[in-house]
Batch of 4 targets.
Target 1
Amino acid sequence: MKIKDITKYLEEIAPLNYQESYDNSGLIVGNPEQEINSVLISLDCTEAVVEEAISKNCGLIISHHPIVFSGLKKLTGRNYVERTVIKAIKNDIAIYAIHTNLDNIQGGVSSMMADKLGLENQAILRPKEGLLKKLVVYVPRTHVDALRASLFEAGAGQIGDYDQCSYNTAGYGTFRPLSGANPTIGQIGEQERVEETKIEVIFPVQQERKILVAMFASHPYEEVAYHIINLENTHSYVGSGAIGNLAEPMSEENFLALLKDRFDLKVIRHTTTLSKEINRVALCGGAGGFLLNDAIRSGADIFITADYKYHEFFDAEGKILIADIGHFESEQFTQELLFEIIRKKFANFAVLLTEIDTNPIKYYS
């Protein structure tokens, strides 16, 4: 199949507009039209991973972390980033990154962490704003049902766990066709009054083109009266981190032991225990320290993440237990997640997991 067949599917699940502003998810190296026979999945893309892709005849590497975060001005091989890109290009290996856009979906990286701990009633810890718009369109009442159905089919009208949501207001519209018009209703030069319905539906921003295409195809008018409004509403299924509850409360010591076991950890860096039970758990894969206040506001007893600096541990202020389990360790199940996502859609396509440990941090014991 072609690279674009896989990347298009991945971007339906984790759209690129879900990534953070600093990120560089998407196809980094390669031609989307390139034919490939297999794909290699890795948390990081390094020279060794490219060598592995070459040896296993994988035309595409899908990594969680982008090998290129900011623009490359030169390709001279002076560092591992440039050498990795050069090696991939020389050997016709494409590189695709699915980073914070995968972090920011429910069922993504943080959700995978929550699943490993058996958390129930999971939700996004900090839902994102700016991902929703509202379409307002006016249509003759004779065509309301057909237009509404088309909008729903195109992806409009989903709010949380509900779909086919719309608000409809009855009224009437007036218009006068001018010379050159080809009106569905009315005569040239004569004002027309038509019983109409105003339909309002919410939709995710990445669906805008598809929804407008559906609207124009189903609307009877030559000129469609509509407008689109940017919303400040948060998207309940998109955002940073995850939160959930344990089936039964546990002591801090027993929960930390469970965490160590489920994530196969050599060490956990944590704040002073608070002599209280752990019931509600907040977590974020990778560097999630920016979510500490969200975790506290959510009533979490512990916040699990990575990359905490010394002075940042003081920010817990006795309100919550912070557990830093390591960046790689917090995201290690991402490879498994991507494997499952791709195999679900492309059951007969060769999907391989890297055999290389790309964690740059080692522990001496």
Target 2
Amino acid sequence: MINKKVDNVQIALDGVENGMTFMLGGFGLSGIPENAIGELVRLGVTNVTCISNNAGVDDFGLGLLLQNKQIKKMISSYVGENDEFERQMLSGELEVELTPQGTLAEKCRAAQAGFPAFYTPAGYGTEVAEGKETREFDGKMYVLEPAFKANFAFVKAWKGDAAGNLIFKGTARNFNPCMCGAATITVAEVEELVPVGALDPNQIHIPGIFVQRIFQGEKYEKRIEQRTVRQKS
């Protein structure tokens, strides 16, 4: 069994360079790779393209990279919680490629499975389809969408073992699984890293073949974007 465990986030992100394309798991602030993002901030890499469902908030998640002007382009689906994102987009400082959420997920899955492209009806007749091949199937029009190409995928899981097998918990099982194996190198940070054989094979969501490096994360904040609670009666 190949041991994919590395000692820390610094080793896990070895090889990260300016101008690369990164995939980052998470939905809102749920299940984001906090340690990897923090290391990207520390490294100060610039001119990067980030593929993520959203861009975090102003002072957390990918919002930290935006504050430092490290991101050249964002490929996202929902970006409504970040004022700095809005400012950079409207000023022309940030290139933005808005993608339907299902298409974003499928572009990740296509890359994971080794498919170069796929047809989808989403976006036909809109700006999303401009410059792309379209084709009719059974009387319905479809848009040809290419699979993503990324240098690194950064994902966060609840549990993992040294072979790279991963288990996600709750809503953190969002874009993380489909980004595993969808880049040249997948880096997984986990809340609990266990020995090989400690995970129930029937509970594993992503097999280790999709992961190249895994490490034990630390100091997770697990913020909630908009906390709503019921008032006491």
Target 3
Amino acid sequence: MILVYGIKEHLNPIKSKLSDVIHGCMQSVLGMPEDKRAHRFIPMDADDFYYPGGRTASYTVIEINMMRGRSVETQKALIKELFSRIHSEVGISPVDVEITINEQPAHCWGFRGMTGDEARDLNYRVKV
């Protein structure tokens, strides 16, 4: 599950393209299948979205929640790919993008009526 926050006037016009770029990175770096896109966009009023100095109104926060298992190198590769492709394909400078990866053990995930550690039919690898 990926959550994306930004000022609504800047985030709403790019949601579709940004979703495509994020999912493309998830596919190329993590091997996620095409049909495993789970993005939630949270457009906010400017007066509800405080951001650090030196950033513009395009400042965007991306929170990636995933099951534990990806190596540090893989996680760093994902972050770097996101910075690069968001800049080249969406036009948001890396200084205006903040990315966090939150990992939880598989037993903390629930989907399709089971926990993540019970799933035996995932069509992607978690340990990459």
Target 4
Amino acid sequence: MRKVYRDAVEALAGLLRDDMVIMSGGFGLCGIPDTLIDAVRASGVKGLTVISNNAGVDGAGLGLLLETRQIRKMISSYVGENKLFAQQYLAGELELEFNPQGTLAERIRAGGAGIPAFFTRTGVGTIIADGKDVREFDGESYVMERGLVADVALVHAWKADAEGNLVYRKTARNFNPMMATAGRVTVAEVEHLVEPGEIEADHVVTPGVYVQRIVHVPDPAKRIEQRTTRPRP
């Protein structure tokens, strides 16, 4: 099975449609599938439900899809860096499903593991639990959360081989490994593409069985979301 595609547009060909569910890896601007997001924007699909920790920032990452109003709903944990997101949400133009960050990660992991639902104490007694099944276990209350699965998962990896085995680097790992397992089709953009067998088996984070398509993106842009420096002496 050929997994390596010439570019992001080719890698997404035949996968995108209106009103679909997309997972997009990354945390802030770290480890986001920039090139694949650009290809989604160019496709013009709309009415998207996007599962991602946040919605990028204004003018970058998923913020680009907000500019073109291709996103109908976000399932997220943190959206405070994006003014356009706030404007669309407060105007009733964007639906939002907020999640505690750990709950979001576990919902994605559960979806990838074939677990339809699980119980957690996080959110009990708050609006997070409104309308959800709350049960008692060993004298404690727990709220039921549903696992998440996407039509397509878009992830960013540091290294891959042609069989789709993925390796991530440092904090750019974030949500990418869980999302790679939770997409019905997973498309990975990778910085370094090597031959099968060049990656040590113990170094593989996402086995190639989870990855259907790969696009090689050497030297991707790596923006700094919040630059913090000390004043010069």
